[in-house]
Amino acid sequence: MQLTKQEVLKVYQTDKKKDQKKLALVIAVTVFIFLFCLTIRYHAYGYEDKIALREYMQSFAAGIRFLFGRIFDTDYYAQKEAVIESIGKVNYLGAFARLKETLMALLAGAAMAISGAIFQTIYKNPMASPNILGATAGIHLGNVIMVVLYSSMALEMIYTRYKICYFLTAVCVVVVLLLGKWAGDQKGNPNVMEMVMVGAIISQGINVFTQYFMYNLEDEDLLIYQQIVLGTYQQTDFISMIIFLVLMGISIIPMLLLRYYFNAAAIDYVDAKTAGINPGPIRMIGQICGVIMVTAATIHCGEIGMITMVVPYLIRAVVGADFRKVCIYSFWVGGCLLMICRLLTSFILIADEEIPVSFILNIALTPIFMIILAQRKRGFQ
User: Fold this and answer.
1) Is residue 380 pLDDT above 50, yes or no?
2) What is the pTM of this model?
3) What is the 3-state secondary structure (H, E, C) of 317-375?
């Protein structure tokens, strides 16, 4: 039975309203989690009570007034020190440290999920992630080189760490892409098995150097390396936040804008050419943006790569394979997941120390990942 134009339009509008309601619910949950995270006292100051709603809200309100007070309310700005003392300097600094930490978790989780969705769409495989291009191996080698060269100063030298990690990651990715294309069918279609094999070989080769440097590290330097890799020590100073936000912006925003065209990246090269579509540039942009996202998120938050595989798979199983929906939902769900895991680190202490966020994340997602491996439901057909 053929539907009329009015019936098709009605079905489209109904589906659109359902999607809008789902998206509104996801955004509302994300906002709630973000605001709730801002009420939890920053861990570094050792308070017994974890909730600091009144003190932190006062701190945020005062911070906003200070921001505009330089121009519009100079009398209030002149009393800055007195206002901070009345709130409590520890509360004031802790509030903005929590804000930076929560914002970083939101964007890092969102970036990891979107990058996973990008690679799963390009390679049409639920196990695909930036790791198959050797991105993580380059980051680990960059981190251990930083510790070898600068020891404890590596924790603070975020800009230098970015340069080294991005350079090594770029080298790994370019080598894997070139070798994968050379070993593939030469028609432009990414061969998953070839890319996985090449990526594994390159990663293992790089890990040899990483293990060698780690073996020669002093005990104190090895502890510093572990803090960097696991994300125990998180840089939230002004320069670190600016670099992180810029990298997130130049990688996430293009993908959000290109999500309407990115379904073409999943089309077979021959079929795309027949339809007058060239998926090559879109695939290249997606892979570059995905690697930038993963590198920035891993440098700041540690080993959280499980998000790249699990979250996009679950989103695709719920909303379908349309990248327009997968991208948006992955953004919110990935951000929520990492914010929750980061929040749990404030409540779970071992020997008066927080456990790494990657530890909680992997415990939560590993069972789901095992189910994915068992079922092998791809969600691309």
Assistant:
1) no
2) 0.85
3) HHHCCCHHHHHHHHHHHHHHHHHHHHHHCCCCEECCEECCHHHHHHHHHHHHHHHHHHH
